[in-house]
Amino acid sequence: MDTFINYLQERLAQPLPGREAQFRMAHLDRRYLPPAPPDARLAGVLALFYPKNEDWHIVFIERRMASHAKDRHGGQISFPGGKFEEGDGHLQQTALREAHEEVGIDHATVNILGRLTELYIPISNFLVNPFVGYVDYTPQFSPQAEEVNGILEVPFSVFRQPDARQKTEVLLGNQLKISDVPYFDVMGKVLWGATAMMMSELMEVVGE
To answer: Which residues on adjacent β-strands are paired with residue 57?
Structure first.
């Protein structure tokens, strides 16, 4: 196993940084939102590492713009993932199934290294469980046409650049503007919200 992947697996087995690390990439108001209610819908997402051009990359999807009012995450950048289905059995399988559906990765080749802290998203009532995995080859991704507008293959080193973390104004679907929202500049695109919060914890897990 690669030295970095082995190190990451060891770090994920230790106590996680948790919500404080997540909050470093969240709007200040996020701290005061309620915890997950009993009826929260469960979801699983996958932070997938893979080698490309002598660097470890992570794959993200850019979701298609919302086609209906209930879709609160249209147009956003996120990890592959989605809601838990009874046939999954467990949330890790949810993350693997959704990654297969959304980006075409063969889930049988994915090695799960561990998981990050769950994160509740009030606007859609999802309690998201993030898993971290890797494959030892460079995949040929295939986006799911109905849900995925594009695939972003991002070198992990991008997130370690001094200017990767910035702030911007975000316009939500209901025309509400939120100022001073932290985000990661991902090859000119804005990665914010829950995915940025999960990436913030992953970055702290990796450390220096």
So the answer is: 50, 155
Residue among 139, 133, 108 nearest 202 (CA)? 133
d(CA 126, CA 103): 21
Query: 155-185: per-residue pLDDT in tens?
Result: 999 999 989 999 998 877 666 788 899 999 9
Q: Which two tokens stand for residue 1?
A: 């196993």
Rounded-to-integer distance, Cα 165 and Cα 184, Å: 5
Q: Count CB-CB contacts under 10 A for residue 65.
A: 11
DSSP letter assigned to residue 188: T
Domains and CATH numbers, the chain: 3-206 (3.90.79.10)
Strands 126-134 vs 41-52: parallel, antiparallel or unpaired: parallel
Note the pLDDT tens digit of each residue in 107-122: 999 999 999 999 999 9
Count of beta carbons in the 10 Å neighbourhood of residue 14: 9
Output the 3-class SS for 85-128: CHHHCCHHHHHHHHHHHHHCCCHHHCEEEEECCCEEECCCCEEE
CB 156 within 8 A of CB 187: no
Separation between Cα atoms, residue 201 and residue 192, nearest integer Å: 13
